[in-house]
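User: Could you check the structure of this?
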Amino acid sequence: MEDVSFWGVIAGAGGVLGVGALVAAYFSETVRELLPTPRRLVRRFRRRDLPPAPGLHFTVLVADLKRDGDGRQTDHVAGALDLYRGIDVIRIGPGPEWDFGSRAALELQARRLLEEKNGDVLIFGEVAKADERLRLRILGRHSGAKSGNGSYRLETAELPRDFDTDFAAALVAAMAGEIATVMGRRGTYLADILRPTVEKLSRLCEHMPTGLDTDQRGNLWHSLGLAAGVLGEQSGDDERLRQAIHAFRATFEEHTRERVPLAWAMTQNNLGNALACLGERESGTVRLEEAVAAFRAALDERTRERVPLDWAATQNNLGTALRCLGERESGTARLEEAVAAFRAALDERTRERVPLDWAMTQNNLGNALLRLGEGEGGTARLEEAVAAFRAALDERTRERVPLDWAATQNNLGDALRCLGEREGGTARLEEAVAAFRKALDVFAAADASHYASIASYNLRRTQATLDERHGASSSPTSS
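Assistant: Sure, the predicted structure tokens are below.
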């Protein structure tokens, strides 16, 4: 089981245009003129009766505006937003007693409501009777640093483009925040959590909201690629990997190399990971060759001098694709290239600097050494592989990153099995069985069926070999 710097890189390299720049409680205060507006049919509940949103679409909660006696202005805001395709707009009735004097207290109340009702964005505010204007505020569910303020005149019965732009920014920030929150849980099984998120993002990208600028459109596509890629990789769903590939390629339409070279390189890196993951499951080498090309393109901008840790992440991923190619080609050239790429990555990914990334690359180095060892006589490469896996486990503990720990236990078991088959006795095979059982325990507990099936197969195969060897050693002819 190989590890790629798929989602981990986004936080580091995404400071310019990626998730890191958009994970935000988007806070916008708008001032608008009152206009008489027709009532629109919008889902409306009293707050105490409002059930949590089902989470199938991106969900905007609209609270009744304070001092909106007949509710017409609240209807206008909710009705105009209801024109967006791909989102649910839900009227929640009166909000709590908003504390307009304290931004921190206000945001805390709003966030609690969003979490309670499973909403993504909350729109609330008041009718300022003194000047017959509206004060509206837009708040995303996830916390962060991006905020904005603006004043707008409402000149028609439709919300003007200025509001549209602010809402679009809040929408992107909220969805990016949702992705970042999930991706931050590295080393755990995320597929079940990501399924509804991918569905929401898919609908948004199919019906891209108006008002988004080039960066925001690119960020939505990129977020969909990340989420679909992890979902496809962990669940074994190839269609999700194809969806990720499509999303990353759509991102290139917005994040061009000429305009945002590092964001373009980040997307090349993540496209390569989706291609490599799918290529490993398919026959042939076309996808894997495309993955190698994507990683090499990323390295044209992700140089060691410019962004050393991002360069190391892509070297790690390049090594993974080369290792897969090496397993399907005659000779060892690709596998040797993979080992070289992993060792290069470790020059920057030191244990002291980035311990979990160091462990990831140690795990991947172990896999490449294992494949070389399987094709060679002797046990030297296999012993190196075992050492690399054991080094990875020094940082990849079960408590810290259970899924990664289990993956490395599975890989360690594979190397020990190969050693045990070449050596006399049963010690190595017994160690391998123990490692596979540890991996299977975690995969089964996490309901990670795709990984559990791999560990279960390895366990059965190794146990059969061990049973044969025990039987041979206890037979009359062997005594």
